[in-house]
Amino acid sequence: TSNQESGLCTGDASDYELRQRLGEGTFAEVRLATHVRTGEQLACKLVRKKGTCRKELEHEVAVLQAVGQHKHIVCLRDTFDTEDAWALVLELVSGGEVFDRVVETGHFSERDAAAIVRQVASALMHIHRRGIVHRDLKPENLLLVSGEHDADVKLCDFGLSVFTGEGAPPLRGVVGTIAYMSPEQLRGDEFGSEAAVDLWALGVILHLSSSYLLLVGYHPFDPAGMADDLALSRAILAHKYDGCSSTEWASVSPEARAVVRLLLAPDPRERATVRQLLASPWVGADAASSSAAT
Ligand code: ADP
Ligand code: MG
Prior knowledge:
The protein is 34% helix and 16% strand. With 294 residues, it is α+β, with helices and mostly antiparallel strands. The structure holds adenosine-5'-diphosphate (ADP) and magnesium ion.
């Protein structure tokens, strides 16, 4: 059937028992699900059929299938539909969103920030090699596998992802979150669907989490936290940013600040690539020693 070809609705709703809500995004509600026969706990991403085009979900499934399995990426296990929703059955990631930990814990260190960057970078390496750009990297889409302090991070939500060279991505109303959008994405230019947009977003995330280390967490292009979407996009386009040079940054290592600056290069051709990022000593396996150096 056409269902099988598209990879959407290949499974059966009666195999799963839906439980409490785990999270909510722009398009979906995610609920805990139990596989009836095996008792396995999973996450079920439900997208209302009303107001959603089937093609959009087929695209998300196609991307997830092309991504396959990776230690730092949420894996697709099954798909089904109900009368009013499409459902993607995903591996359960139960430690919550990364930022809740960054903001809540008093123990978040530069070493922890480097570990998050390293894991996300390895996920990006995996997808970029397969010609996939995530395009919606943000703290809400980075999940922790457990409540442990050093829990692994997994990237989720490929709803806005594209295959490079594919042309225009499927339209979904408001696309992405302004706060993590690169200048080229905001301009809508030819680089707007290239891999470098994911590195920009990672730079914004690193800036935010590093500045939380100083207890003054702020967005690189919105230091006062006052900007609306229009003001924010103007600041990003004008690259109005202090380059981590303000006095508050003095206690963050120069290596970490350099990584933020490399990721927030306004020209995508000058921005750090995943390979360069992973080769940097601060991000690499040696992250512990550089944070001790300050
Ligand atoms: P949307 O496309 O609507 O943004 P997401 O795929 O980002 O939907 O899921 C929304 C939220 O649900 C996430 O931010 C996260 O909190 C939670 N979530 C998503 N996938 C999982 C999962 N596999 N395990 C646990 N929680 C998840
Ligand atoms: Mg999301």
